[in-house]
Amino acid sequence: MYEKSIELLNKAVADEMSAVHQYMYFHFHCEDQGYELLSRLFMKTAIEEMGHVEHCAERILFLGGEVEMTASESVQKIHDVKGMLERARARGEGSVRDYNKWANE
Questions:
Q1: Contact at 8 Å (CB) between 99 and 55?
Q2: Domain 3-104 bears CATH identifier 3.40.50.12780
């Protein structure tokens, strides 16, 4: 009965898992390069993304589904800060687009 909702929520989990991995990667590299404030921001963002995974997982379980803990994409190995920020912006814009589309489905 809730198969489509569970499927879309699992897509959200996969995207959020990818975001967690990507932001932690950025956190590590910013810290290594001495960008402490940006490093902490990326770490904080990764933790917030983990919270999103938790909310989606709770909803999936409430609907009687199975939570698929697979990332939707691999970490992009970006080492320059400008590239990191551009990737973070693109991820955010993509998430808004996807969530609005899925809400209509």
A1: no
A2: no
